[in-house]
Amino acid sequence: xxxxxxxxxxxxxxxxxxxxxxxxxxxxxxxxxxxxxxxxxxxxxxxxxxxxxxxxxxxxxxxxxxxxxxxxxxxxxxxxxxxxxxxxxxxxxxxxxxxxxxxxxxxxxxxxxxxxxxxx
Length: 120
Prior knowledge:
- The protein is mainly α.
- The protein has a domain at 38-103.
- The protein is 50% helix and 0% strand.
- The chain has helices spanning 13-31, 48-57, 63-76, 86-102.
- It is elongated.
């Protein structure tokens, strides 16, 4: 019962292919950018979709732009932040503040003045 154990060669085809695939995966992962860089695209619009996205970015809220760019990402490659500048963000924040003040409930307890009704 003493059979000899035959050792398989270390460089078999499965081992070489596994190592080369692993090296390829590591190289691809290292080549990917770590952070996403959004570039402002409203300066140069080349397609009608980009022109429409820039028009929507000029609005008072980002909602319409978001509704347009999210589904269009897979079709046209539109990314929401490519069409938003710092001025747009500030304008949207100011509009949101105005809306919050307009929709705030009036506190009329303890003699606080009632808000004036708009003239019709």
